[in-house]
Amino acid sequence: MTCSLTSARSLSAAEQLLIVTLIVAFGTFAPTGSTSAGEPDDGNSKSVAIWGHAWQPRAPREEMRPDFGVISQPDKSPAALEIRSRSRVGLAGWWQAELPVQGGQTIRVSIERQVQQVEAPFRSAVARIDWLDDNDRRVPAERPFVKGVLEGWRDTQQPDFLNEQETTDDGWTVLGGTFAAPSRATKARVELHLRWDDEATVRYRALKWEVVEPVPPRKVKLATIHLRPKGGNPEANRKAFEQPIAAAAAAGAQLIVLPETLTYYGTGKTPLEVSEPVPGPTSEFFGKVAAEHACHIVATCFEKDGPVLYNTALLLGPDGQLIGKYRKVCLPRGEIEAGITPGTEYPVFKTQLGRIGMMICYDGFFPQVAQRLTDAGAEIIAWPVWGCNPLLARARAAENQVVLISSTYEAPASNWMISAVYDATGQVAAQATEWGTHALAELDLSQPPYWPSLGTHRSERFHHQPAAP
User: What is the rounded CA–CA span in Å between residue 285 and residue 253?
Assistant: First the structure.
């Protein structure tokens, strides 16, 4: 890519002058190890016109200022804004533009990003939106806080982040999101960042900003089954769940979660003796049940894949088909000694309800599993679990702001896991306490929790979490 004064359209003389001024004033494309010739960032830095808006280069302090520039492709495709570090640790800066908005509008935003030598783009190359009033102040927060958390405390609206959505044919990453402008907002400040990497370059192009219809509610009915099967063999254990599933489906359940390794429980057999291929007997049985009741079902079994055994969760769709599977990643001593092999992937499946991930029992003792599922887009995590500290269930839901559905063999009195639906704040929305029964909760996936000073923390957490070691 090269620096030029051309773009997809002819630039006006004023725009060319602005770009020339920017390149000269801010030391764009300065040689490695050199310092920028830019003026101190006093809030009145010269701007550049691109995508129909005036963009300013900014930095927290002049000593942290990276290099800024405007890039156009050799094929004359749309121009891009660039930020480049200068072989110094701790540089940070961003391009910003203010766009007028009307309070209450719903706005769909996207921009494309390309990075070079950025260790963790999710935290170093971020795009965000601040909602401001006519005095350039953040407007008051309007979304209710999590119940019981600093009720009555006043807060300002926290920034919204654009998250990764897809990759273009030429390798750029599309960042985007749909946001409701607060009622008192009159402008939105869009910021395109690069921070902290010492040999990094980030480019942003193709900003799209459009007013759309409000996001409709996405209410889903989620259920868990609380049952200890006593069939004594895999087939009888599977059949033991037919009636509870039918009852949950009759109540409107769209996703029903069953407990861990239900074909093994109480059989007196080894994992190898009850193991099966996938697809196999368990996926076929519960696929038929799911189709009969037009619902999603999560069931687990010991999967045999050649000589290898896995503890595997299956997601069956309302058409009876196997949507996908998850192999338990974190194995306790007993499973290791039984010759079970851990899985290595964290699949998330797009369904008509939303994006569903799965984890199994011991996975819940480790925050990484639920975190990776959430980072992959999971809105709901189904959790077949033999036993676990129920506080960890609340933590996994709350720290990721994800809905969690657990199904266990433990009696509630043991306080070693419960069969429950947890909302995205970590609160129990519904719990099954009697054997052979279900619990059902209706939750709205379109309304993520809002926390004081953090906003919608699911998005904020993703961009602030540590980079992988």
Answer: 19
Tokens of 140: 């008051």
The model's pTM: 0.85
Residues known to be catalytic: 260, 328, 361
Backbone angles phi, psi at 392, to 5 degrees: -70, -30
| Residue 267 exposed, middle or buried by CB count within 10 Å (0-12, 13-18, 19+) | middle
Cα–Cα distances in angstroms (integers) from residue 229 to residues 115, 235, 273, 436, in the given order:
53, 11, 18, 9
Identify the DSSP state of 152: T
Question: Which of the four pLDDT bands, split at 50, 70 and 90, describes residue 450?
Answer: confident
Which of 124, 23, 111, 130 lies closest to 67, judged by CA? 23
Per-residue pLDDT at 19 exceeds 60: no
Query: Domains along the chain?
Result: 13-214 (2.60.120.260), 219-445 (3.60.110.10)
| pLDDT tens column, 266-281 | 999 999 999 999 999 9
Q: Is 347 exposed, middle or buried (0-12, 13-18, 19+ CB in 10 A)?
A: middle
Q: What percent of the chain has pLDDT over 70?
A: 86
b/e map of 218-230 (b: 16 or more CB within 10 Å)? eebbbbbbbbbbe
The pLDDT, as a whole number, for residue 257 is 99
pLDDT digits (tens, 9 = 90+) for 413-446: 999 999 999 999 999 999 999 999 999 999 999 9
> Minimal CA–CA distance to 123: which of 406, 453, 466?
466
Between strands 219-226 and 92-100, the pairing is unpaired
Positions of E strands within 196-288:
201-212, 219-226, 255-257
Q: Span 307-314, mean pLDDT?
A: 98
C-alpha 143/C-alpha 455 separation (Å) is 9
107 with 211: CB under 8 angstroms? yes
